[in-house]
Write a structure and sequence with these properties.
The complex is a heterodimer of chains A (264) and B (609). Chain A is α/β, with parallel strands linked by helices and 264 residues long. Helices cover 43% and strands 16% of the residues of chain A. In chain A, the strands form 3 sheets. Chain A has a 5-stranded parallel sheet, with helices on both faces. Chain B is an alpha/beta fold and 609 residues long. In chain B, helix 2 packs parallel to helix 4 and helix 4 crosses helix 6. Chain B starts with a helix and ends with a helix. About 8% of the residues of chain B have low confidence. Classes of the chains: A alpha/beta (264), B alpha/beta (609).
Chain lengths: 264, 609
């Protein structure tokens, strides 16, 4: 196993997920990562790609993403058409990790192109060129999505789901989250502790008053602002409160939590 | 003359004794929502509501002027029980607005801490203070400011008799150095109230009865004054066989008003609710009979079911449904019996004339939402080449310079509307209330259902309409208006027109039944739209927190089935409990009920876009 070098993105493991990832890659199994937004899914994949020395092809899925965007399309050149590989095809040709972020956002028909690639055939048929690509051993398919209940309308098709090994992410424990904030931004551990305590309070509001709760990413933003010398209360207001809610009364309550933690 | 002088004196002495600061008043109503969220964020029980605490007599020593003026004998303190967190209805203790507001949030923060109930009051408060300050160090300076301001206002120990001085001294020490006091020597006279701490011995605990909470359905009384204030309630068993015509008390003085006598005259306060309200505010206790006919609260009738012949036609056998008991935290299987009904006397009819214009308008708007899946030509980006554009470009290139940048791709736009919606309308008796001079809630609901159906028929989305009401667990009425497989027709309009208010709101059972119908629809999006005007409530224990928790569990079950519940309500107090049930973004409160018919289809369009 390679050690964490300066080129490897910082990642604080919370369990044996690195081990599982490596085993899945070695055994050519596709991986599904679920977890709330900003809890470190993308960072984890980037970290693992660097650790395993693989190229990483990331596709951020959106609701207009079509199969052609993944596989490739004909472009028009000077009097002729040129076939241009999509990120998925490129990853299959070169070997490496193809990471489809927020895969449920993509249109339903899009995910079907993943099927032959995600089971033991590991093939990618390209209809438009008539090609049939066989994925090399170094290729790995990783998809992720956020299963928050507000999003359940966009659940994954069972037939797609059943082709993956699954890994669930959640927000790290308080101690780990503090370590992440310190490691990522270099703030002192006292401030990190307080930021994590605010996040804990906000997360208690999940399903009641907030649709999405404070992610580790937002905490890193707040910590970055504080590290830069900005007033902690203002930093939390900008990075956390205003980002999480538009409702004035909810914002008042969240600000109270912030000033209860950092207040004077 | 005598009266005039008396009045002047009263005004003078009351004003001089007044130690409150009207300009700096913070009202509970202004901060209730934020306070509730703050409470939940600090780890407080999310099912608790917030309400105003009743003023209680404290019996402590007052200043001379206050004694002369007869003021300052009552105080509003906060406390928490299984149903609600009670906070003062307003705080005007300090001269600064910020301090009064800080006190509110301090009380909320304190209430969010779980304390050991076996310890004495003074130890509990200090523990809670310490725990709060440790978790939220930012509150330290605020706490210090509050304590300093409070101590400056209390009667100093050296002005008190020895035993009271010692008692006061202990309290001051506990406030200034929380954790340093283990016990308090109580003096003969109660200590001055401590607004920074919760009530030493909350008057009603456990299963409380509150007038106004778990409020009976208000039949036909839309103008009822909503007050957050709760009264101390005292349960009294109803003695049967009282002669209702025997006049046993005179409702002239406060004293006799507060005495409870069970009289079978549900109508007797009808003309005098305002005076009764005032009298009730002044009373220490409000006595409520077990059968729910409160003297000052609304009267709750046990409604008789219509005779079989006059009732709607039952459809099939009754369905047994479970119900969640939050006190025991168990799901009681087969607890409710639900009967599906269909209106017997519904005649097919046309859309009422008054709605035709709006309906046409909506239909046109909604036709734009009809499912389409087509190719757009000349796009900058797309899945396929646009051959026409390509040929044109090549030929233009061979003759002259290209005239413009053409998109050379074809893209498929996918506007498939793969969804089903079940609308569940609350048809309880409370919908009989008037929302304006000419329409009742039920009329608004009827118009909403009609326009909603018109709009959805234009989109081609699959939808069903049901209504519900209930009379205890044995009789949950589930009215069939339109099924998923039925076409929207005159017959359906007839059934919509025939809806009428009745009975109570056992929401959990109705939601469970609706979920089981909706889940059979094999669609990608399944929307469960609930149209209501109040809290879940029924005649038996199904009220207050019990009803809310059962509804919540029913909604969680629905979400697990992959349905999307959404609530549209006209209850302006709904933000007290709907976040707990539906989550943020899971409900909408229509401020002006008359807008509902127009708003509902638009809401639907937004939700399913």
């Amino acid at each position: 196993m390679e050690t964490q070098t300066s080129n490897t993105p910082f990642y604080e493991p919370s369990g044996d997920e690195c081990d599982l990832f490596e085993r899945a890659w070695k055994n050519r199994l596709p991986l599904l990562i679920k977890g709330p937004t900003g809890c470190g899914k993308t960072r984890f994949v980037a970290h693992m790609a660097a650790r395993l020395g693989l190229p990483l092809h990331t596709v951020a899925c959106h609701d207009d993403l079509t199969a052609a965007d993944l596989v490739g399309r004909h472009l028009i050149g000077d009097g002729e058409t040129i076939w241009n590989d999509g990120p998925l095809t490129r990853a299959v040709r070169e070997g490496g990790i193809c990471y489809l972020d927020e895969v449920v956002e993509a249109r339903k028909d899009t995910t079907v192109v993943l099927h032959p690639l995600a089971d033991d055939r590991r093939m990618l048929p390209i209809d438009r060129t008539g090609e049939l690509l066989q994925a090399p051993p170094a290729f790995m398919l990783v998809v992720s999505y956020n299963p928050g209940y507000q999003n359940f309308l966009k659940g994954m098709k069972p037939s797609t789901r059943q082709r993956f090994v699954s890994l669930t992410f959640d927000f790290p424990s308080a101690a780990q989250e503090e370590a992440i904030l310190v490691g990522e931004t270099g703030i002192d551990s006292m401030t990190a502790k307080r930021l994590v305590s605010i996040a804990g309070a906000f997360r208690a509001l999940r399903d009641h008053d907030l649709e999405e709760v404070a992610s580790t990413r937002l905490l890193v933003y707040a910590a970055t602002l504080i590290k830069d010398g900005y007033d902690p209360v203002r930093a939390c207001q900008a990075a956390l409160v205003e980002t999480l809610t538009d409702d004035a009364e909810t914002a008042v309550a969240l600000s109270e939590v912030v000033s209860a933690t950092f207040g004077r | 003359m005598e009266e005039y002088v008396g009045e002047l004196w009263d005004r003078l002495i009351t004003g001089a004794a007044e130690r409150r600061h009207a300009a700096a008043t913070v009202k509970l109503d202004d901060i209730a929502k934020s306070a509730a969220i703050f409470f939940r964020a600090l780890g407080g029980d999310p099912g608790l509501g917030i309400s105003a605490a009743p003023a209680v007599r404290h019996g402590a020593r007052r200043r001379l002027l206050q004694r002369m003026a007869g003021s300052g004998e009552k105080v509003e303190l906060s406390w928490r029980d299984g149903e609600v967190l009670r906070l003062p209805s307003q705080i005007d203790l300090f001269a600064e607005y910020a301090l009064n507001r800080d006190l509110y949030f301090w009380l909320v923060a304190l209430a969010a801490v779980e304390t050991n109930n076996h310890r004495s009051w003074i130890v509990r408060n200090q523990q809670a203070t310490l725990a709060t300050l440790q978790r939220f160090p930012g509150l330290q300076s605020r706490y210090t400011r509050l304590v300093d301001a409070l101590l400056a206002m209390r009667i100093a120990p050296h002005k008190l008799p020895a035993d009271e001085a010692a008692q006061e001294h202990t309290i001051c020490q506990a406030l200034q150095r929380p954790g340093s006091v283990d016990e308090i020597m109580l003096a003969k006279r109660p200590f001055q109230p401590v607004p920074l701490w919760p009530h030493p011995n909350p008057p009603v605990n456990g299963e409380s009865v509150t007038a106004g909470a778990g409020s009976p359905e208000q039949a036909g009384n839309a103008a009822q004054k909503k007050s957050r204030r709760k009264h101390l309630a005292q349960r009294t068993d109803v003695k049967e066989d009282k002669n209702g015509f025997l006049m046993m008390f005179r409702a002239e003085s406060l004293f006799s008003w507060s005495e409870f006598v069970k009289v079978n005259r549900p109508q007797d306060e009808e003309d005098d609710t305002e005076t009764a309200q005032l009298a009730a505010e002044d009373m220490d206790h409000l006595t409520i009979a077990r059968d729910g006919k409160a003297s000052a609260a609304n009267v709750r009738f046990d409604l008789d079911l219509p005779a079989g012949a006059a009732d709607d036609t039952p459809l099939g056998e009754g369905v047994l449904l479970p119900e969640w008991n939050w006190k025991k935290q168990v799901l009681q299987p087969d607890y409710c019996s639900l009967q599906q009904l269909i209106a017997t006397d519904a005649k097919p009819c046309e859309l009422p004339h008054a709605l035709k214009n709006t309906a046409n308008h909506l239909r046109r708007q909604f036709q734009a939402l009809t499912p389409t899946r087509h190719w757009l030509k000349g796009q900058q980006d797309g899945e396929e080449l646009d051959m026409d554009a390509w040929v044109q470009l090549v030929s233009e290139k061979n003759s002259i310079m290209p005239t413009s940048e053409h998109g050379l791709y074809r893209a498929q736009v996918n506007q498939e509307r793969d969804l089903a919606c079940l609308l569940l309308a609350d048809l309880s008796l409370s919908t009989d209330a008037y929302v304006s001079n000419h329409s009742r809630v039920i009329d608004v609901i009827r118009d909403s259902l009609l326009l909603f159906s018109e709009a959805l028929t234009a989109t081609g989305d699959s939808f069903a309409l049901y209504g519900f009401s209930s009379l205890k667990r044995s009789h949950v009425r589930f009215h069939y208006i339109k099924g998923f497989d039925e076409k929207y027709s005159g017959q359906v309009r007839g059934r919509i027109t025939a809806i009428k208010p009745g009975y109570y709101t056992r929401m959990g059972a109705a939601i469970r039944q609706a979920s089981s119908l909706l889940v059979q629809q094999k669609k990608r999006q399944r929307l469960l739209l609930i149209l209501t005007d109040g809290k879940p409530n029924d005649l038996d224990q199904y009220e207050g927190r019990y009803g809310i928790e059962d509804t919540r569990v029913a909604l969680i079950e629905a979400r697990k089935l992959g349905l999307r519940p959404f609530c549209v309500t006209i209850d302006t107090e709904a933000s007290d409990y709907l976040p707990h049930l539906f989550g943020a973004g899971g409900y909408v409160v229509i401020r002006n009920p008359e807008d509902l018919p127009k708003e509902l289809p638009l809401l639907y369009a937004q939700m399913t876009r």
